[in-house]
C-alpha cells in the first residue's frame, strides 16, 4: 500500500494476528562515492500508537531490506527485511511520541547500509538506493504477542499531502579536500519514498 498514513506493528484477535512492515528506500546518490559517513538518522512522523502488550518486546527499530525494486512492492517482498542485524538502538513504544517526529540514530551497521553515489543497491537495480525497513519488536525477534493484544504505530508516509510530516534520512559526511585543503563536512536531508506491507500469521 502507498496510503498517506500506514501502520507498523503486530497483533490481532485470538490465534490469528496481523503483521505490518514498513519499507524505506532513500535515493542517496547525492552522497559522493568518496564520502565518509560520520553519522546518520532516520526520522518518521507518528500520528498514533497502541501498546497492547508492554512486555519488553514492544519496540521499533530499523533494518536493511532487499525487496526486488525500490518503487513498488509485491507479495514476495514481505520477508525481505533482514532481522539478523539492527541498524539503530531500539525505541520502546513507551518512549515514542504521538503527533511528532521520532528519530532512530543509526549505528555502524546502519550507516554501512547507506549506498553512496555509484554503489550497488540491496533493493533496486538502480545504484545508490539505501534500502531500509521498519519492524515492531515481536515481529523482528519472532516473539509471540499476547492473545488479543495489538502493538501498532500509525505513521505518516511520503504520499501524504504536503511535506511537513514526510519521513527522511539525515546523513552527515566528510569529503576529502584537495592537496593542502581540509576535508569538508556536509549535512544532507533526504526524503524517503516509503512503502508498507501487511500479512496474517497464526500463533
Polypeptide structure, described:
The chain has helices spanning 108-112, 137-140; strands at 5-11, 16-27, 36-51, 59-65, 81-82, 91-92, 100-105, 129-136, 150-156, 168-175, 184-191, 195-202. It has two helices and twelve strands, in the order E-E-E-E-E-E-E-H-E-H-E-E-E-E. Strands 1, 2, 3, 4, 5, 6, 7, 8, 9, 10, 11 and 12 form a twelve-stranded antiparallel sheet that branches. Mean pLDDT is 87; it is low at 199-203. With 203 residues, the protein is mainly β. Strand 1 and strand 2 form a beta hairpin. The longest helix has 5 residues, at 108-112.
SSE layout:
Blueprint: E1 5-11, E2 16-27, E3 36-51, E4 59-65, E5 81-82, E6 91-92, E7 100-105, H1 108-112, E8 129-136, H2 137-140, E9 150-156, E10 168-175, E11 184-191, E12 195-202
Antiparallel strand pairs: 1-2, 1-9, 2-8, 2-12, 3-7, 3-9, 3-10, 4-5, 4-6, 4-8, 10-11
Amino acid at each position: 500500500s502507498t496510503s498517506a498514513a500506514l501502520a507498523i506493528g503486530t497483533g490481532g484477535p485470538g490465534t490469528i494476528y496481523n503483521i505490518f512492515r514498513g519499507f524505506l528506500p532513500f535515493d542517496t546518490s547525492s552522497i559522493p562515492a568518496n564520502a565518509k559517513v560520520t553519522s546518520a538518522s532516520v526520522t518518521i512522523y507518528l500520528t498514533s500508537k497502541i501498546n497492547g502488550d508492554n512486555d519488553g518486546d514492544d519496540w521499533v527499530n530499523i533494518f536493511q531490506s532487499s525487496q526486488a525494486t525500490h518503487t513498488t512492492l509485491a507479495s514476495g517482498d514481505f520477508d525481505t527485511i533482514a532481522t539478523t542485524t539492527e541498524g539503530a538502538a531500539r525505541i520502546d513504544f513507551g518512549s515514542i511520541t504521538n503527533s511528532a517526529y521520532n528519530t532512530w540514530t543509526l549505528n555502524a551497521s546502519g550507516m554501512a547500509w547507506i549506498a553512496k553515489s555509484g554503489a550497488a543497491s540491496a533493493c533496486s537495480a538502480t545504484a545508490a538506493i539505501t534500502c531500509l525497513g521498519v519492524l515492531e519488536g515481536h515481529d523482528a525477534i519472532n516473539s509471540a504477542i499476547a492473545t488479543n493484544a495489538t502493538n501498532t504505530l500509525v505513521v505518516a508516509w511520503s504520499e501524504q499531502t504536503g511535506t511537513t510530516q514526510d519521513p527522511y534520512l539525515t546523513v552527515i559526511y566528510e569529503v576529502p579536500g584537495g592537496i593542502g585543503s581540509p576535508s569538508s563536512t556536509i549535512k544532507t536531508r533526504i526524503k524517503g519514498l516509503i512503502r508498507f506491507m501487511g500479512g496474517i500469521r497464526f500463533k
